[in-house]
Amino acid sequence: MRERRVRVRLVLVGPPGAGKGTQAERMAERLDVPHISTGDLFRANLKEETPLGVEAKRYMDAGDLVPDEVTVAMVRERLTEPDATKGFILDGFPRTAPQAESLAGLLQEQGVALDAVVEFVVPDEIVVERLMGRGRSDDTEDVIIRRQQVYRDDTAPLLAYYADRLIRVDAVGSVEEITERVFDALPTP
Known about the structure:
By secondary structure, the chain is of the alpha/beta class. Helices cover 53% and strands 13% of the residues. A five-stranded parallel β-sheet has the order 2-3-1-4-5, sandwiched between helices. The N terminus is likely disordered. GO terms for molecular function: AMP kinase activity. It is found in: Cytoplasm. This is Adenylate kinase.
């Protein structure tokens, strides 16, 4: 097990059920950097009723998607917090090539760049099995298969955007095995 105490800036991508959240937590602890989930950012901003949270809620209450500008602004604020200066693991952002371009601009303002984008690769049938096992009422097989297709459609341009720093990791196996695969695949400083 290699320990790394260097600045590392990563983006994790993968379909729902790929284990991104679990791996992000493990990696963040091992690398001593924050795990930044856009879902957590939204919940915190909504709960604290920040100006960005209030703006996001307006869109959500109307049944609209929160625009990229609001999401990017939340990420921008989070990346300027002191713990993120030593690196970070982004989970759930960016989801699209335009969001990736916005992230590149944010990082360029800070004079840094992403080290790698880790794609967790899992066959559809395993994802369906994992998500069906959660027992959530909205996790029907048809809904899960639809989410997989939306993920593939939305993420293909993102993966192309990050082709120069994309690391594909087989995300089938034990949590520990997958974590080791990620660390073995990360570029060394």
